[in-house]
Amino acid sequence: MIDSKMKKAVSLLLTSSALSLYAGAGLGQDAGFSILVNGETIAGDVVDVKQTREADIALRDADIQVRYDGFAAEPRLDVQTIGGSGPFVAGDTVTFQSRMNYPAYVTRGEVRIIDLGTPSGAKTVAVLPILPNGRVQAALPEGKQLVFTHRVYDERGRFDETKPLSLTEGAARPISEVAEEGTDRTAKRSIPVNGGAVTISGSDVRPGARVVALGETITPAADNSFVIQRILPPGDYPVEVRVTDSQRQQVLERDINIPKSEWFGVGIVDLTFGKAFGDDVAVETGSYSRGRLAFYTKGKLANGITVTASADTGEEDLEDILSKFDEKKPRALLGRLNDDLAYPVYGDDSTTVNDAPTSGKFYVRVEQGDNHAVWGDFKSSINGSEFLRNERTLYGLQAVYKTPDYRPNGAPVAEIEVYAAQPDNLPQREIFRGTGGSSYVLRRQDISVGSETLSVEVRDATTGRVVDRKLLTYGVDYDINYVQGIVLLRKPLSGSTSDGSLIVNNPGGDNTVNLVAQYEYTPTLELDGFSYGGRAQSWVTDNLRIGATAMVENTGLAEQNAYGIDLRYQHSETTYLEMEYAQTDGPGFGFASSTDGGLTTDDTATAGGAGDGRAIRVEGQVDLADVAPGRSGVVGGYFEDREVGFSTLDYQVTDDQTLWGVFAQVDLSPSTSLNFFYDDFDEATGKTLREGGLDITHAVNDRTTLSFGLEHLDRNTPTSAALTGSRTDVAVRVDHQRNDDLTLYGYAQGSVEVSGGLERNDRVGIGAEMQVSDQLRVTGEVSGGTTGAGARLLAEFDQDENNSVYFGYTLDPERDLGSSLSGNDAGTYVVGARRRLNEQTRVFGENTYDMFGERTSLTSLYGVEYQPNKFLTYTGGLEVGRVADDANGDFDRNALSFGVVYQDEAGLSARGRLEYRNERGVDGASNRDSDTWLLSAGARYKIDENQRLLFNLDALRTDSSLTGLPDSEYAEASLGYAYRPVDNDRLNILAKYTFLYDMAGQTVNGVANSGPLQRSHVFSLDGSYDLSPKWTLGGKIGGRFSEQAASGTNSFQSNDAWLATANVRYHAVHNWDVLVEGRALRAQDIGTTEYGLVAAVYRHVGDNAKIGVGYNAGSFSDDLRDVVYDDKGFFINAVLKF
């Protein structure tokens, strides 16, 4: 018989130890197995073990492991450059390396080089065939902004593709030529991967040895180790590992079976029926029936369907147990781990994995490839429509289906996503104008982890039309502190950019650049309502897509119905036509905006309060090469009509608007190009804007270009005579590339005709773009004109991914911060750095100094991570911000954080974090004084092999005039201890202590008397000892010292109690158990003591069920939280477990 310790040791790990799992070659999934120790069969079929034993010895000599990892391994796809990270220029030879762990599912691969800087947008300029995990070498083609991706295809044409990496900006990642790094950069995943992972690793391989495994050649790393993992379809596989060096060759073989299905599950059904005789019986008859249903299961079917499901009803009356099954409990995840309900530590070194996240009592997820259905917590991502998008974290039902057939563009023929949810949180949307820096502070502090969606949007400054949008990826493009609400971009973000025309109205650029953040936060008021919606789309042909979107918000705070239809005709990669209609009815959600990185914010109310509104959009372009092969250029246009009341994530329309435009960028010859545009905007208020221009650029030689421009502007602004009139401007510009690293330019523009109140638009400027070294890049421009001086400077030094420094200065004469300029605008300075000082220390810092006339602000953000050894890490952060504004009031913010993490190999791990945030001042008419303290700490200590200790602490104090958090004081601490000897399981001791201090109910959102208050100490000690295989002694002692008040106006009432129990269990024969327990309950405040006796007899039915009958002679239970004395009487208890 194999004891419990042997069961833990036996696995599918085929290592250098003498333990082996043998499956004969050619055995099917249902064949038998043998477990052997030192060549002796201890379980399963008796086999000839000579070959297996010899292989074990050889494995030991080579220190090679062959491991089956089950179905948990995730597919990985990556592509990297070998030998350098760039930046590269046209003509450079670059070697690309494919990395993936599922080549068995792939028929071909390619590296795609894409130019993001063409007139028609992103365009693939080279496609390089590459074998999975192979290499390809090529000379880079011409291009302004080259990036590369890696695509792999399966036999049905479905493809997976990586995120783009830059070639011209030096963002490509060099790698070891031999090591398999195990990284994943998949951006699009369509290939279904259903199988198990086999991992082969080795160390201490002889220098110069060559390893062949799974049919692939592996070169060991510098430390003579190697690792390779491959996901294989179900079936039987002979795994051969061949190690060859100058002295010998070893061939090691194993037969591995990857099953078609694999399941794990655990569950319990606990039912109790009783007749109570106490004086405090809840029901007239005195009878009761209670129960609890709980289970967790995860498995994969033979057809590739994966099912994850869990449920926990908690203990309920049986008549309510199913009717309350769909009841939402936002704190359910915390409640199941609450120290009042379970011991903090059980001494078995177990860990918790939240594989079934749900805010209710039930979770299920069924998935196959790209398709899934889930009930629980999920993140909805409705995309494909420009007007109607939805990126929220919700609780409820979500289903996504994609057809198995795919179009050549990699999209499924049809797909649908639907959801129906009960929101626990509200969405917050904030728009930050780029400051030239990397740090941005969110308005809310209690941010739901993982709920954020960040993007960079480029908008037309006048019409608000979204010109471009790029979604950001966590850990690649940005990092976030969820407690303090701080976003750190990996690259500085400018506040404006050119619209592509030669003549500029704003020296910094006529289009605005914004960081858009949407996330979920916990409101102080309880939400009651539903959100549901969905999107369906189909590529009815290889080129035509039709989609429909509908969303309903019924949360009380944001009642809204929204629906729309859209069409896209994709003739080629750069020729398309889009049409869209959308309508909204109801307020929806507004947004907050900031021009200083979040130091101050302005609210924009929703436009949906005006009723319903609709919007129409038509947009398209034609790549001339598609209609006239050999021609270069693009012609396109757009039309939008938006009604008052139209309210979405991106648009709040307060007046009817119509806008349309056309554009063309055409190469007239190899050296001459033409750029034309016309934009027309009308608003119901009488505001109009009509602007058109024509630019011609001629390349004098390979390094010098001349550009000439003409533009006419006609605008009417009823509320401003200074913004009403017409103007005609002309311009000339010279660009000269002195060498591959330096480009100089100069321009001059002037108004030849002006009428009305418009100012002239005369301006002269010079600029440069210089790649000083592989790490240092500097761009800058200075200009002067009728609207004032303008300047822009950005210097970036990127030594590597851990070390970068940047400095920026912006002077924008047309800048608008939402308040009137008093005095002269002296511009904005930004300086920041990320540095890894040594192996132990990393630091980050950024300072932004803004001098907008008499309104000045200074924002400083600093962070440090110090790791003195591999066990200990310190972190610290500081944010300091100050606005000095005589007109709108001064404002100060200071935030400080300190953290520490410790984890050693002896069994001690600890963490702690202290944060403080202080705000003083006003923002317009709003008082923003607030103070917030937060402390979070925890520790786990392995005293020895027999004992464990666990500690947790969470504390929060807020005092605010206006904040997302209510005024409150809250603290919860717990201490757990477990004693469970490893050499025997006769003695087991568990102990816990919990302290709770909850004053949040005293004032909630400024409203008094709205919640209960309590402060309490609860402890318990529970133990059992096996006198013999049949007799077990046990006992428990617990105490509760608490004070409670119904609200802030009620006095606290003491409610102290002691509980002691002693029991004996007798395992009479194989299927019978007897329990006798004595109890004593002391109610300290009223001076009474209750005694009780419980007796029960249980009969085991098989290995997974038991039924028992018992009698409680006392009127109380062994739960100190139970203050209703209704437990005296008979009971029947049935337990089913699996």
Defining key terms:
single chain; 1138 residues; mainly beta; Immunoglobulin-like; 40-stranded antiparallel β-barrel; 7-stranded mixed beta sheet; 3% helix; TonB-dependent receptor
What does this protein structure show overall?
This protein is 3% helix and 58% strand. The protein is mainly beta. Among the domains are: 4-72 and 197-258, no CATH class; 77-191, Sandwich (Immunoglobulin-like); 426-522, no CATH class; 846-1063, no CATH class. The strands form 9 sheets. The chain has a 40-stranded antiparallel β-barrel. Strands 29, 31, 32, 35, 36, 41 and 42 form a 7-stranded mixed beta sheet that branches. A hairpin with a 2-residue loop joins strand 62 (930-944) and strand 63 (947-960). The two termini are 21 Å apart. The model is unreliable at 1-39, 41-50, 172-179, 329-341 and 1002-1010 (pLDDT under 50).
